[in-house]
């Protein structure tokens, strides 16, 4: 029978983190990433994956150091997720079949242009208006291509991970846009709190940077165009911020009920004590001007963790470096925390690793945990011209030593997605 | 079966399929005996498709601006979800919608086929393909189209149009997305973490770019339409896609009773799994799902199968259902609606809820391969086998069978 040591303020099982793994443009593995992140190193660089002439944005935080069986978003996303999961599981000391559910945040991928051109090469010439896909069908009718299909099935990544790591049941592949990583963790926390599982593998990955994804975000005026020098482009909360820098990465968290984790003698890295979410109905890409839904998401996370606004020691901001997000996030935080915000450091990992989209929430959850474990708050780099309308303590440019016991991590996305986590240190 | 406050009950159904718009059209399908598959053999010939029915979008998407911002995939989903909210009596309850959870099963959005074709055609004349992509996409792509393509923007549009904002989660992964969506929403209600959830998805099948996914592995049926159980020897791979949207409102019994809502059915069990598709392993998994959901204990159930018609797996499913539920009549609803991929499982649950509520002895959808039903069933079993992977099962009970 559970005792209060193992349950939270609402009598639910406490959820421990027992393993973490990360890949980003800064490198592979938690140790390398944390060292670079706390040293204020940027992973943003000029794009070499595809030619960028004629494009207004020519920089990104792509992950280019992986060996892939094929150059496409599915293979890249899979490879990063598998690396992060391997690291997290190895750290957690779980070496046999995982035996719990898998929650995977993955990008909604589409065929690469190279794949369309390959089909086009085999197809008969155009016979009418806009008939490329009809001609592709004719090609595939005579020469089916299972590898091509697997590269565009959304269930393909979790299928391979489920087999490799021995997760249980039907894996969930999800997308809540830029809040996806947070949602994956939230689903894992819920499964454990519901008693449906003692452990859950939560993963988020995004290796979907290609010319089209870059151009699409560019057409929405979402990306920074300050290409030179690349490492200076992502500058959250500054007056001259002009958009986010698209990036890639992956993170994994092994979640376990605290009771089960202690029973097997696992090292407890920390706890996920609160999850909050709230959707916005204002606009497809813009947040409600009053910040209402984001405020509600933050409050829901605090309430879920049994905290008030005095309970948070550090905020890992969504901090994308877009004019809109950073303004809205400040409005949100000042509304929730009031004057308490004066003494809470708020920094943006995206100033260094860019916006890893689907993966961001999980990567930032890992870094939030590392902040608590090491007593080091990572900086917001490129903070040279503060925005006077955003009077936050952004831990400008240089890391800070501080004892932090609870972190709020924010994620906000297109489609009205708002999700927040409260992450705490290991219980006394 | 005794009633509990956190029982998951279905209080709303919203359907759009080739068979029509709304519950009346689908109740008529379940209680009647006329069977017209509504197939369009021309648009994607040689591939048949079940087209969307005639729809007055403004009935559920009043603002033209909202309609313009969406592709048909999203319009179908926003429309069907509005019908479900209406049916549950929650459409105009702003407070309920603001607290309602939402789990959407979504695929990819719709490509701009003219832009893509323009680029592919130009590539035949040029070698610098990368530069071509940059040049054409920069000048030809409509910025808003991206938003019609993002998987989570069906949910986003439902939030905008119907103001459902308690939470918003989009699951992907073909048929498995729909299975997990129902499973996750039901688990939250059962655990007392949620009281009302809007669950479902949609598909616009009348597009060559959608069919690519299926035909890449020779999965699409060709030529003359036939029912799902009769495609093993027909031309092509067996799948006929269908346009439509399927949504249900899942609710705790306590909440439904407190507001005096009409309960269509009680969702007493739901589970999903995946693994190797050898006939033995598949049969083993389906038996485990049947045990876990309580399907094996069902007395004289109706089985609503979401079989896609894909060769081999559809034949295997039929054999497994025969072993697990030897006396149960089976109805392959995909014969008449087409295969909707992501919302296949929610569609089965919606049809099961309507059949139980209508106390219908459902006439065969395929007289040659489906046994008649003499009396209405009090229990319905819904199955979905993903066309590539993932399996799900649910059990629904008629309300008057409870208590």
TrEMBL record, chain A:
<dbReference type="InterPro" id="IPR020841">
    <property type="entry name" value="PKS_Beta-ketoAc_synthase_dom"/>
</dbReference>
<dbReference type="GO" id="GO:0004315">
    <property type="term" value="F:3-oxoacyl-[acyl-carrier-protein] synthase activity"/>
</dbReference>
<dbReference type="Pfam" id="PF00109">
    <property type="entry name" value="ketoacyl-synt"/>
</dbReference>
<dbReference type="GO" id="GO:0006633">
    <property type="term" value="P:fatty acid biosynthetic process"/>
</dbReference>
<dbReference type="Pfam" id="PF02801">
    <property type="entry name" value="Ketoacyl-synt_C"/>
</dbReference>
<dbReference type="GO" id="GO:0005829">
    <property type="term" value="C:cytosol"/>
</dbReference>
<keyword id="KW-0808">Transferase</keyword>
<dbReference type="InterPro" id="IPR014031">
    <property type="entry name" value="Ketoacyl_synth_C"/>
</dbReference>
<dbReference type="InterPro" id="IPR014030">
    <property type="entry name" value="Ketoacyl_synth_N"/>
</dbReference>
<dbReference type="InterPro" id="IPR016039">
    <property type="entry name" value="Thiolase-like"/>
</dbReference>
<feature type="domain" description="Ketosynthase family 3 (KS3)">
    <location>
        <begin position="12"/>
        <end position="425"/>
    </location>
</feature>
<comment type="similarity">
    <text>Belongs to the thiolase-like superfamily. Beta-ketoacyl-ACP synthases family.</text>
</comment>
<comment type="pathway">
    <text>Lipid metabolism; fatty acid biosynthesis.</text>
</comment>
<dbReference type="InterPro" id="IPR018201">
    <property type="entry name" value="Ketoacyl_synth_AS"/>
</dbReference>
<protein>
    <submittedName>
        <fullName>Beta-ketoacyl-ACP synthase</fullName>
    </submittedName>
</protein>
<dbReference type="InterPro" id="IPR000794">
    <property type="entry name" value="Beta-ketoacyl_synthase"/>
</dbReference>
From TrEMBL, chain B:
<dbReference type="GO" id="GO:0006633">
    <property type="term" value="P:fatty acid biosynthetic process"/>
</dbReference>
<feature type="domain" description="Beta-ketoacyl synthase-like N-terminal">
    <location>
        <begin position="6"/>
        <end position="255"/>
    </location>
</feature>
<dbReference type="InterPro" id="IPR014030">
    <property type="entry name" value="Ketoacyl_synth_N"/>
</dbReference>
<protein>
    <submittedName>
        <fullName>Beta-ketoacyl-ACP synthase</fullName>
    </submittedName>
</protein>
<keyword id="KW-0808">Transferase</keyword>
<dbReference type="InterPro" id="IPR016039">
    <property type="entry name" value="Thiolase-like"/>
</dbReference>
<dbReference type="InterPro" id="IPR000794">
    <property type="entry name" value="Beta-ketoacyl_synthase"/>
</dbReference>
<dbReference type="Pfam" id="PF00109">
    <property type="entry name" value="ketoacyl-synt"/>
</dbReference>
<dbReference type="GO" id="GO:0004315">
    <property type="term" value="F:3-oxoacyl-[acyl-carrier-protein] synthase activity"/>
</dbReference>
